[in-house]
Design brief:
The protein is an alpha/beta fold. It is elongated and about 60 Å long.
Length: 275
């Protein structure tokens, strides 16, 4: 009985050591990525100019892709892109099918309870578009007006929070919300600046629009990281900080969003910790 008991103890200890070794191997994602020789980046693949299919090369390119490429280069590993759906972003990360997310991921308190965020590498300005005929030019003029936004979006939440006297009207998609503005069923449309700029260009000939200069609010985007991977998070933040201090982020931003692109916007944010 005594020998059997000793054998059981040895086996239990061995199992514990194996389990411990496995956990240790998984505990340092930074070392695992280097050992694997590949960084797997989850990205949308359908969101121009952040990650989308180039019409000629058919490759996924964009601002998010370039940021992931910089992280991969810093680690001395290859970059593998994995296109994912919006609703699959956090599950793909937490279940270990991607190492990092660069996927239009706005920081919210709810998401921050599930994953870690890197320093912000983009800030999405949420703005208001009105018809030129309306004569509206200031956010303060929207009190009591009908303001539309996509149902369930951060834009809708922002309108309800920041223009509480407005009548918030929601639609399931961008086209429906924009059509309501064109048909004067609403007075204003709240969305990201990039969406509004493209819609304004498309409607310029028939329905001139104005995007109010002052943002309603700003939404910082961070790279999504699994919680507790401190070494990897610190490394990624170091890469982002280096892009800011070297000015390399200006080149990447201008390439995809600056002068000469259809968006033609200025970078009015810095890479910094999301607070």
């Amino acid at each position: 009985m005594k020998r059997a008991s000793q054998l059981t103890s040895v086996l239990a200890l061995g199992a514990a050591l194996v389990a411990g070794a496995t956990l240790a191997a998984k505990a340092d994602q930074l070392a695992d990525i280097r050992s694997r020789g590949k960084l797997i980046c989850g990205t949308l693949g359908t969101a121009e100019p952040f990650s989308f299919q180039h019409p000629q090369t058919r490759q996924i390119v964009g601002y998010d892709v370039d940021i992931c490429q910089k992280v991969a280069e810093s680690l001395g590993v290859a970059l593998e892109l994995k296109p994912i759906a919006v609703e699959a972003r956090i599950p793909e990360l937490t279940q270990g099918r991607v190492d990092i997310l660069a996927a239009n991921l706005g920081h919210t308190p709810e998401r921050a309870q599930q994953i870690d965020f890197s320093f912000s590498y983009f800030v999405s300005q949420q703005k208001i578009m009105v018809t030129r005929e309306s004569g509206l030019t200031l956010l303060e003029q929207l009190a009591g007006k009908k303001v539309t936004a996509i149902k369930g979006s951060s834009s809708e939440q922002g309108v309800r929070r920041l223009i509480p006297t407005a009548d918030t009207v929601t639609f399931q998609d961008t086209s429906s919300a924009f059509l309501a503005l064109v048909q004067d069923k609403v007075d204003a449309f709240c969305a990201s600046e990039l969406i509004l700029v493209k819609l304004r260009q498309q409607a310029q000939a028939t329905n001139p629009m104005v995007v109010i200069e002052k943002s309603l609010f700003a939404e910082p985007w961070g790279l999504g990281l699994r919680r507790g991977e401190t070494a990897f998070r610190n490394h990624v933040n170091g890469v982002l900080a280096g892009l800011e201090s070297s000015g390399e982020i200006d080149r990447i931003f201008t390439k995809w969003l600056g002068e000469g692109t259809v968006f033609n916007i200025r970078r009015d944010f810095k890479i910094e910790e999301i607070r």
